[in-house]
Amino acid sequence: MTSITVPKVKKTKAQVSELRQKRRAELWRRIKRNKMIYLMILPGIVYFLIFRYLPMYGLIISFQDYKPYLGITGSDWVGFAHFERLFTSPEFWTIFRNTLMLFGLQIFVYFPIPIIISLMLNEVRHTFFKRGIQTLIYVPHFMSWVVIVSISFVMLTLDGGIVNSLLEVLGLDKINFLMNADWFRPIYILQVIWREAGWGTIVFLAAITAVDPQLYEAAKIDGANRFKQMWHVTLPSIRSVIIVLLILKIGNVLELGFEHVYLLLNASNRNVGEIFDTYVYVAGLQQGQFSYSAAVGFFKGIVGLIMVVVANRLAKAFNEEGIY
Amino acid sequence: MLKSRKMLIGLMLLLLSLLLIACNNESASSDADKKDAEGSEQAGASEGDEEPFEFTIMANLHTPEVPATTTLEEIEKITNTKIEIQWVPDNNYEDRLNTAFATNTLPEAVFLKNQATFIQFRDAIQDGQFWELDSYLDQFENLQKLKENVQDNTRVDGKLYSLYQGRPLSRQGIIYRKDWADNLGLEAPTTTDDFFEMARAFTEDDPDQNGQNDTFGVTDRDDLIYGAFKAAASWFNTPNNWGEADGELLPEFMFDEYLQTMDYFKELHSNGYINQDFPVTSKVDQQELFKNGSAGIYVGSMGDVNSLYTDAVAINPDIELDVHNYVEGPTGEYGIWAIPGYGNMVMFPKSSVETEEDLLKILTFFDQMMTPEVMNYAYWGIEGVHYEVVEGRALPTEDSALMDREVRPYQGIEIGEPETNGRFEGYFEYEPKAKSEDLFIDNESYLIEDPTIPLYSETFTRDGARLQQIITDATYQYILGQIDEDGFQAAIDNWKSQGGQNIIDEFNASN
Predict the structure, then answer these.
(1) Domain annotation for chain B: domains and CATH numbers
(2) Do B368 and B79 contact (CB within 8 A), yes or no?
(3) Prediction ipTM score
(4) I need a labelling partner for B348 at 20 to 30 A (CA). Which of A201, B19, B62, B429 fits?
(5) CB distance A43–B472 less than 8 Å?
(6) CA nearest A177 in B: which residue?
(7) Which pLDDT tens digit goes with each residue over A209-245?
C-alpha cells in the first residue's frame, strides 16, 4: 500500500496522509461490501499464518549453533557454517541427485498416468462399470505407506514372496528386488502409481465433465473418430487444469514422501535412495543435530521455491494462466 | 437462498469458534496443570513429607500398550510420591527424546534408552544441563550400593550424572531346535565349523523329516549388533567395537577377524543357510521364521528362548529348544562381546528439576526404589496376583497378557540389578530358560570388552552414528556379494576421510 503512495510529484504531508486515508476508507468499504467472502477466507488465512508462516521463525536456528537449553535467543551465531558443511559434504551431491531423480520420475512417469486413466475412464460408456473402477482405484490412497510398503515386501521377498515363487515356477532366476539398488526407483514409482494414480484422476475427471458437449458434436460432424475427439477436444480443454496441477506438483518438488522413502531404505539402496527428507530426519531427530538439519531443510525449501517460480514463468510464457 | 447463505456462514463461524475454543482450552488446561504442580511442590516443601511429591518420568515402553497403574499405585503409596510416567514406544524413543530436548520439555527424570543416545547427550552434559550426582549419593543408603565399576562406565569427564539400570554383561548365545538336532544326530555346536555344519544340515538334510525341502539354518534380522553378526564376530575373536593392534586403538572393522566373520556370513548366505533377505528382516519376522518351523537356529539374547518357546509350541506341540553359548573360532578360543554393565540410565535435567531440594526428593524416590520391597512391585508386580515366590525366586503368572498389561513395562524403570536392589531373581519352570540364566554367568568368563567406554572423542560424539552407517551398509553389501574386499576397503577409506581418522586419533590421544 505505502509504496503506491510515493508518486514522483512531491506532495505535502497532509496530502499524502489524506490520500492514504482515502485508500484505507476505500479498502474498508470494499471489505464491508464483501464481508461474507472475507469471512470465508479467514480460516484459511489463519491456518497459513499459524502453521506455515509462524514456524518459519525456527529457520533462524540454521544460522546458529542451536542448543535447546539456551534457546534461539541464547545460542551462538555461526553464519553459514551449516550450509558450508552441507555443500562440502560428500553426501550432498548424492542426495541432490537422488532427490532430482525421484522428482523426475514423479513428473515424467507418474504425472501423465492419472490423465491417461481419466481419458480412458471418460470413454467408458457403462456408468456402473465406470463408477466401480473409479471407486476401486481410489482405495489405495487411503492406505498408509506402511501398509503399501509391507504388502510389497511380502510379495517381493526372497524368502517365500509370491513374485519370486512365480519366477521360480516359470524356471527363471529369483530376483533380489529389495536388496538391489537398481530396483529401488522402479519399486518407488510403481508404489506411487499404485497408491496415488486413482486419487489423482478426480480433478481431471471433473475438468473433463466441464467440456462443452457442443464441441464433440461439431467434431463428430467434421468426421473425427473417438480418438481424434479425445486428442483435439478433450485434451486441449483440460490443458489449463493440467498445467496448474503440474506447477503445483513441481512446487512439491522435494516432498517425495518422507515416510515412503524412509521405509524403503536399506543398506544396499541407500546410495540411490537417500533424499533430503530422510537425511533431515536422521541428522536432526535421530542424531540431534538440530541446526544442521534445519539448514538442510531450509535449502530444500529454497530449491522448491525456485522451481515453482520458474515453472510459473514458463507457463505464462506459453500464455497459460499459471497459479499466481 | 438467503437462508442457506446465512446457515453456511453460521456453520463456518461455529467451526471457527470451536477451533479457537479447542486451542484455548488446551493451553488453559496445561497452564492449570502447571499451577497445580507448582502449588503442590511448594506445599510439599513447606509441610515436609506429608504431601506426596509429584514428578514425571520419561521411560521407554517395550510392550504395545501403556500399562495399567495397579502396581504404580502401590509404589506411590510406599514412596509417598505421585508419579506420572510418559511412556514412549522403544522404537521411536530417540525421536521423542531429541524432540523433547529441542523444545526444552524434558521431564524431571529421563531414561536415555542406551549408550548411543547417552553419547549424543554428552555435549549437553558437559555444558552442565544435567545434575551431577557424586556429591549427593553419599546421603542415600541404597543408591550407594550401585556398582562402582559400572558407574565408572557412565562417567563423563570423571563425573557421575546418571543412575544406571543393570543388565547381565553378555546374554548372547544360540537358541536352536533340539528336536531337529536329535533327528540328525547333531550335538550343540562348539566350533564355528560345527555351527556351519548345523546350519547346512538344518537346510539340506530335512531336519523336520517331512520329506520336503522347506527348512533352513539361521534366522537373522536387520541388526548387525543384537542380531547374529556381532555374536559370531566374537567367536572369531573380533574386538568389541574397538581393539588394540600394535599399541594403537582401531575400530573392529579394520581387523582381519571382522573380515573372516563377513566371509563366514557370505558363505552362509550364498548357500542359502540363512534367510536371504535378513538385511531387511524385522525382529518380529525373524522370530516368526523360527516359531513357524522354517528355521532352526536363532542367535541373539538367549533369554528370548522363553517367548520363542511359548509361541512356537502353540504351532507345533512337539517342538524342543535348547540354548548354548560356547562356540570357539579358528583360534580355539571362545569370546563374547560385553555391554558395559548397564542397559539404560536415568538422568535429571536442570531445566525441569530446578532446585537441589527437588533433586533430593527425586533421588529419595529412586533410593526407595532400590529396596527389595519397592523393586519387587516394579519388576514382578503384586505377590499372589502377578507372581509367586518359589525357592526364594519369583515365578511370574502364566497369564502373560496380564503381566504385559500391568507389570512388564515397569521393569523399564528399574535401577541397579538384583545384586544391588535386592529384588527376586526369576524362577523359571522352563528348563532352557533357567539354563540361559546360568549361561549369562558363564559368559562372564569370556567377555570381550569395549576399550573405548571410558575414552572420549569429539568427532565420535558428533558424527559417529552417521559414519557407522557407511560401515554397516558396506558390511551388508559384502555379505550379499555386492562388493568385494577392495570395495569394503574403499568404504573404510571413505569412513576415515569423512572423520573416522579423527575418531581414531582422538580416542588414541585420550587413551
Answers:
(1) 47-168+341-418 (3.40.190.10), 172-337+432-453 (3.40.190.10), 455-475+483-511 (no CATH)
(2) yes
(3) 0.75
(4) B62
(5) no
(6) B277
(7) 888 889 989 999 998 888 898 889 999 999 888 988 8
